[in-house]
Amino acid sequence: MTGDASQLINLKLKPVGYVTYGDNNRGMILGVGDIGGDDNMIIKDVLLVDGLKTSLPKSSQLYDKGYNITFEPNLYLIADSKSSETVLVGKSVNNVYMLNVSCITSSINCLLTRNDESWLWHKRLAHIHMYHLNRIASKKLVIGLPKLKFERDRLCEACQKGKQTKSTFKPINVVSTSRPLRLLHMDLFRPSRTMSLGGNYYGLVIVDDYSSFTWTLSIATKDETYHAFKRFFKVIQNEKNCSISSIKTDDGGEFQNEKFDKFCSKSGIKHNFSAQGLHKKME
After folding, report:
1. 3-state SS of 78-96?
2. Which end of the chain is more exposed for a tag (fewer CB within 10 A), N or C?
3. Could you tell me which of 13, 58, 56, 62 has the C-alpha nearest to residue 42?
4. Distance, CA of 145 to CA of 122 (rounded, Å)
5. Closest CA to 217 of 198, 232, 195
6. What percent of the chain has pLDDT over 90?
7. What are 71-80's pLDDT values in tens digits?
8. Domains of the chain with CATH codes
9. Across the strands, what pairs with 97?
10. Number of neighbouring beta carbons within 10 Å of residue 59
11. What is the arithmetic mean of pLDDT over 208-234?
12. SS3 call for 233
């Protein structure tokens, strides 16, 4: 086990329990990985323990992997059982055998292909578009830029995050309200191209947060939003025998006006605005 995550390859971060030390203190196991590389000795199933300041080998596991261990007064040797070649040297400190794994993790091969080199230049030139990168290369506008064909054959993660305007929210399975009409979500959809039989173009959509029940009120103009909600307020409270506590809308003019504010204040309704509306106010 070790406390240095940089020494591990194929690391899988997953809490799997605790390790109890000789003084009865415990260290949390943060994950499991391997030590070594493709051409070097590999110690599998090494525990990453939180707060562990030294790397402690497990002799039985090394025996199972085909290595011989020779203990001497101040150090121990780990040798390949087939070739008898010493591959690792450990030392004893305060009766604890510690292992220095830096000698087997330092030799890391870096493989580079022509395709990866084109994307490297994409990053060097401030994530420039591949089309412009090809033009720069063809006209020899940058000294040292190799003559490569820059193709956009995959997605640049940095470009994706930089141009991303918003991220999705995880669905919430728990209802945040405790009764109907405690919170109503309201919005007005844009005018339809075709007029309804009643002469209406707009629709006021009201959703109950507790039950997800939805009402749609048809209105002719945006100015009728206040009067439609006022009528809905009286009817629904009498019908459900409970009061509306709060509503949430955007900051459109049909909701953010003096009449709406006075009615909410008089009726004891808390009027909240959506995050998009608050962002517009800050700007």
Report:
1. EEECCCCCEEEEEEEECCE
2. C
3. 62
4. 11
5. 232
6. 25
7. 877 777 788 7
8. 5-105 (no CATH), 114-160 (no CATH), 183-282 (3.30.420.10)
9. 92
10. 13
11. 93
12. helix
